[in-house]
Amino acid sequence: MSTDQIAPERARPGPSAAPRARVLPRLAGRAPAPAPGTVLHSVSGATTVMLGLVAIGAAIHEPVLIPPLAASAAIVHSVPALPLAQPRSVIGGHLLCAAVGYAGLAAFGSSPWVAAVAAGLALAVMTLARTPHSPACATAVVIVLRTPDPRTFVPLLAGAAVLIVLVGCALSRARRTGTRYPQYWW
After folding, report:
1. What does the H/E/C string look like for the chain?
2. Over the Cα atoms of the chain, what is R_g?
3. Consecutive 10-residue runs of the chain (186 residues): their mean pLDDT?
4. Model pTM?
5. What's the first-to-final CA gap in the chain, in angstroms?
6. Pairwise CA distance, residues 98 & 106, whole Å
7. Cβ atoms within 10 Å of 2's Cβ, excluding its own
8. In the prediction, which pLDDT does 32 show?
9. In the prediction, which pLDDT does 149 show?
10. Angle at 134 between CA 133 and CA 140, to 5 degrees
11. How far is CA 115 from CA 31, 84, 93, 100, in A?
């Protein structure tokens, strides 16, 4: 066997190498590193929209920031090219899942069992409607478990989803480089 056929051994840090040098590459895994400025842009956009939702809620004395909307903001601002980040999915997904949540609540009442079934049915409805948005499944769960008044909750939910999309559009236009948001509206 010639020396060309023998795979060279990888250089491994010796026992004297700093632990950080051995651990950090393993933690990073194979995930690609974000482009410079992307992290700051994503974090500032998501934080801005969440602070806006809190301010609106404080002004009208109603909670507007719910966990599914925080997750939606994170998706829109960190992975804007994905189908689940597009306006149709963000707005339509939350509204469809709210309908499923209220239907489950009306039919079977508030319980964790109903919430679990509502989340599964909400996923099915979004899939059939071609509005994939995983955080919206949690909207159905919130509705079943917290039983908010639909007269105030649904308009606030719709407004918050629209605000998330509009801030995503505005910040996308403010950047010179990067993925444009949205990729499509409907």
Report:
1. CCCCCCCCCCCCCCCCCCHHHHHHHHHHCCCCCCCCCHHHHHHHHHHHHHHHHHHHHHHHCCCCCCHHHHHHHHHHHHCCCCHHHCHHHHHHHHHHHHHHHHHHHHHHCCCHHHHHHHHHHHHHHHHHHCCCCHHHHHHHHHHHHHCCCHHHHHHHHHHHHHHHHHHHHHHHHHCCCCCCCCCCCC
2. 22
3. 49 55 66 71 82 88 84 91 95 97 97 97 96 95 94 93 93 80 86
4. 0.79
5. 62
6. 12
7. 5
8. 72
9. 92
10. 100
11. 34, 22, 17, 10
Residue type, 34: P
Contacts 24+ apart (CB under 8 A), 20-28: none
Between 112-129 and 134-146, two packed helices, what is the crossing angle to 10 degrees? Answer: 150
Cα distance between residue 63 and residue 142, in whole Å: 12
Tokens matching residue 157: 């939910």
Q: Which two tokens stand for residue 80?
A: 């804007």
